[in-house]
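Human:
Focus on the backbone:
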Amino acid sequence: MASNLSIPRWLVAAALLITLAGLGFHDLWTPDEPREAALALAMSRGGDGIIPHLAGEPFVEKPPLYYDLAAAWLRVSPFSAPSAGWLRLISAFYALGTLAMLWLLARRLLGRAAAPLAVLVLATLPGFVHVSHWLLTDGALMFFVTAALAALAGAYLGGRPALLPVAGALAAAAFLTKGIIGPIFIAFGGLPLLLLAAPWKRPIAALPNHGDSDGGREAGDETPGPRITGVPPCTIRPSPSAMLLYHLAALITFALPVAAWADAFWRSGGRALFMEWFWTNHFGRFSGAATQLGHINGPLFYLGALPLYLLPWLPPIAWLLWRAVRQRALWRELAMPLAWGLGGALLLSLSATKREIYLAPLLPAFALLAAQGLQRLELRPQTLVRYAGVLVGLYLLALTIGEPLVDRYKSYGGAFREFDQKLAVRSDLRAAAWAFDETTSAGFEWYVGRIFPVLTNSADASAVLAGHHPHFNALIVCHKRGEHLPPDFAAAQETQVPMGARRTLLLLHRNPSGVPSP
């Protein structure tokens, strides 16, 4: 029998504070944050809103919506200089929006009493805390996917088909945030809702309500109809032809923004740049052909990453899945979060490019499963409140105290500013960058507003240091610990500034003798 666990409002409110704790207590951290911040900054200072740019060069790994919205947020910043804490607030907004959409979705699927429990679980998942405190497009994708599925649940299970065009627009936003993967995740979660509602059937007076105390019937009961706990009867269902029109409207609200951006991208960037985005960042990542993008991992990568992202709520999820194996009818009740969560994880596992943050749009599905598992475990409410209260307290303590301590080792801002001051006194130097990575290019743009021409040919670099290059007489190098410097680089060192524990910014001037390097 499913228990009705009552979660105190103060505990849910404290869990929401986790999303805001520590956001302004640290600088931009690698990986990802310097790049994402610089892309948003460039967009805020005159970007066309169609193609993001990093250090003056097109950056087409992702569509521009995340950077457009972040740029708008930077434009209203009260700070004179770019502020990492201010920009990071946008991650908190996406996270809080995701929690709100999950509350709506859980109330529809599991009942009003279970909605705060699902929110509490999601707010305290380590993966959710990660993406809500980091500048990542994955946090925005998580919001748009969850919001679209909440709209689909309202349309199919709540008898509000006018929400279908809303779901289409949110799917378009998911696409414009990170490409085709967003609509695919929405399809995984939306298809079970569509099949449960069966809107193509003739109108009926009411949908059967299977919100019994056990959340379903015993194994072997094959009575047709929705098997979702707490779903109220829907007294009005539009005709199949009306539902068809609503679906057509949803397709239009999805296709129009996507097509408009794709057309503008093609016209602005050209065919080659468009195909780099379309082919390399979709099929190249999936097949492993785009090795230059990195993060190539084996097929079992998420078997290790997913449990870490779900702690400490993994036990009720595992217990619920084990019970579903024994109780066949329970699979229908779990169809939506399982298709969304496990189906999405399987798809990600088939791709050659893998990172733990890619799991972010699937975390609300696992929060739904955890809430269902906790309800069925028949826990004492006091036990759950104490456990969750300790968990929330530890998060708040770690984020407010731990992040400033970690920032001493992960902040690169001081190094960029110090290097810029040393470079500023050498007005005779015309510096180029040697094979900068994204973090270094982004750091110079974000912290000191500098963009250096990048050289990638070793012959050009040697010509600079020998004094034979027509445009440059100095090189800036980000030297990573353990990397080998060519002899002519080592002989030309003039200035070095440590950047964290593993990197050093080097200013290399032409060889004093002017003799070309061999």
